[in-house]
Amino acid sequence: MLCRNSDVIVFLVSYFAPTSDKQICPTLLYPSRITQLFHRAMDQFPQELISQICSHLSAEDLRNTYYVSAKFRKAAEEQAGRYRTHIYKITKENKQCFIDRYSGFRLRYLEHVQFDTYFPDLDVNDGNGCREGSDEQREKDKTFTEQIQNLFTTLKTVEEHAGERNRGKYRLTIYSPSHGCSGDSCLHREHAHWRTHLLEPETLPDLMSVGSLEINNDHSSAKLDYRILIDLVTRFPNLENLECHTGKDEWTPSYRDAPAKLFIWEYDGPRRDTRHGFGNAITPTNIPKSLQRVELNWFCREVMMEADCIHHWKAMPNLVSPASKDPFSTSLRILSYHLQEITLRAQVDETLFWPEDSSTPTWPHLQRVFIMFHMVSPSGAWYFEGPRGEGRGSTGYELDESSYPPLEPTEEDEYLDDEVVCGGRSFEDRYNFWFRISPNDNVLGPFLASFAKAAANMPDLRQAILWSPLRWDVDCGEDDEGESFDYFEPPKKFYPEYLAWGLAYYVPGVGSAFATNPGETKCKARQIWWKVGEWRPNPEIHSLFQQIGRQEHGEALKEYWDDDEFGQGLVSRDYFEYWTPEE
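== F-box domain-containing protein ==
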């Protein structure tokens, strides 16, 4: 127990202690002998008592006591974690101030470091027109790389000055740059067509104090190479949490008329290449073993608005070829092996869950799996079809040289620029036609089977959510298109532009996944909620789902097919977005 005069002791410690890193002591106004006697008395206190004293101090007083004695230094370091509240945005102007402030004991107070990247304005003139040339790409790569190198150098300097005993544990957020052009640019310049790369990432120093990393691309028109995420992760040996919010401008809206159709937001070639590059970046050995939680969001709010509004008769690119299965999905699976929780919003295939070679993986620690998948698979095939099988045979088209943006302006660019100048943006009329609300068993079936097999190999699994956003509107297309769906009568409480298809699994005793038809709050059996409309899995797939958690929790299983509010109809997305938030 702390003595009854602890308030007095706390006052004395904070008063007699130095008040800055330079140890300028106000007690110089008093006889130095008093100060010496006080410090000597403090050295006689048991370490336990000193630790209790320090537990009562404010952050500033705790910092001051650090210089009283070795015992107080040890106690102050132990208590510093309570005050991890400092947030610091590093800029070119305040970099040295950051180094001076946190190169020592204060590093333990640091909770969040933020860093904005930027591109210098690049003049758009008649020479490069509305296209991004090779020189401009190289300059962007170089500029971005230099900024990341400077950031790492700054953070490493602070770490080295603070020393091993004062190692911090903070969150690092890196914001993506704008794509950097100025002047009278055309609509081509509103969207970056080439990816920005991090050059020579292996030269970056390891940072021991980074416990969480976030890459935020929500409000940037630049497009970062996907593998930057992994190249950074490998430099943080103690990383526990990883977040990524990106994907902007990757889905060109479906426009009705030219010239809007010709203003492509992203070409298929660079998009495929960055997914394959991500696949090449991950190996089972280069991911920190400390990583526990991952949230990767390639469909943040602004992205999903466009990825949702695609014409359901339109052919989609094959982003997998020349590989047989999606390297991007495969790498995400490798990333997940040692996690405790994964939240994912992405365009993925069945190798996200199960290896192509049919080997049997395990996820020994994974407890929570929340996945939103896009209705188009990476190969360009659709996971969903019309109510009577419309669009079932749609396949992805192969990429060629035309799948990459030109490096120089074309004659067509000049014509389109004139159209924009004369007509403004009035031509940007959306042309959406949505009818795919029923599972395409030929494509979705293997995806579901792989998920079920993987979940059965997660011995610690407590919650799993798998879902896809859907839409229905056949009135906005051509007359003959809409008439072909006159037979379909939507069920009551049908939210045509805000639908979801999905399922949830909970272990016994966890609770209820949904507010409607909630099952049993303290159920002693495993529970599966099927929010899948009138569709039912075939016996083989159904049996695989019934195996999830069976070995760990026994035979008892309850399944729910109807919904209190929507009956056997498709439910609202609100059911699922709680687990996979848009931002």
